[in-house]
Amino acid sequence: MTAETIQAHPAGEHDDHEAIDHGQTGMPTALLGMLLFIASEVMFFGGLFATYFNARASVPAGAWGPPEGAHELDIALAGVLTAILLASSFTMQFGVWAIRRGDTGKLRMWTGITLVLGVLFLMGQLYDYSQLGFGVADGVFGTTFYTLTGFHGAHVFGGAVGLTIILARAMRGQFSRRNHVAVEAVSMYWHFVDVVWIAVFSTIYFLR
Amino acid sequence: MTDTAIGFALLGIVILVVLGVVFAIASRGGSGASRPAPPRGVHLPSPSFLPAVMSAAIALLGAGLAFRAEDQLANPWLAIPGLLLFAITAVAWVRAANREWRDVEHGSHDEPAH
Description:
- The structure holds two protein chains of two kinds.
- Chain A is mainly alpha-helical.
- Chain A has helices at residues 3-8, 29-57, 75-100, 104-132, 139-171, 181-206.
- In chain A, helix 4 (104-132) packs antiparallel against helix 5 (139-171).
- Chain A is elongated and about 55 Å long.
- Chain B is built from three helices and no strands.
- Chain B has helices at residues 3-26, 50-66, 76-105.
- Chain A binds chain B through residues 7-8, 10-11, 13, 17-18, 115, 119, 122-123, 126-127, 129-130, 135, 157, 160-161, 164-165, 167-169, 171-176, 179, and chain B through 2, 4-5, 7-9, 11-12, 15-16, 18-19, 22-23, 26-27, 29-32, 35, 37-38, 40-42, 112-114.
């Protein structure tokens, strides 16, 4: 990049704000910000997983799990919730592809479906919590279980807030083929939340 | 229905209400053409004590949840001040961000070098 190019586009700015020109080098600052935020979130969840594994390693084999008298974890329900969240990643991406083509109607439809799936996941997780029969203060397993899944649920809620804003803005006609960086940013976050759930689900329900 | 189930049901309702409020607020904006675009250049937030205060509030709230009597959901002497401080800081932070946004829109910032 020449000095003239740098001066023409200070701090990576483009002439059309929030515009994405696919195929052009460089990245909008909003997307770069989201990537950095996701990187910090990876470190955050890394700490939570380290805590879980450390606690798990300090307990004898066979003794790890819900406290006595409580129900076993409902793998079937968790599996359904996993399928819902995985499906929501696909629907989100269909929305991104739609707006890249300039199809705002499809963007609204796929964003709406993704939001519904995200809310379904949250409601399913709350129902699961209500049936478990143990709380966050019931032993090391209870604490680590609720911390990991609870923080993930909070992130899904954050993603749902982002999707709600995207849906509202899409309904106001604020996105176009060239102007949709917020859609790309929220989709990145949503995929990240999905990947984290796969790690949480595998760790808690299978690596016991 | 147990108290726990009622608590989680209420949490579910709160989630739906918050999403509804967010949708209503986000729907108030204009169309793409009338929506104000951020000005050119780099804009950094002003120095603020709010992040540190909010961290202290969350720590207080967490301590209230951890250091409690057996029959208590939380220690009220720690959790309630923590929750109040968190709410006040969150509102102050949003107001400060809105104020900064308006200042930037009106051009009271350094223009980037071209």
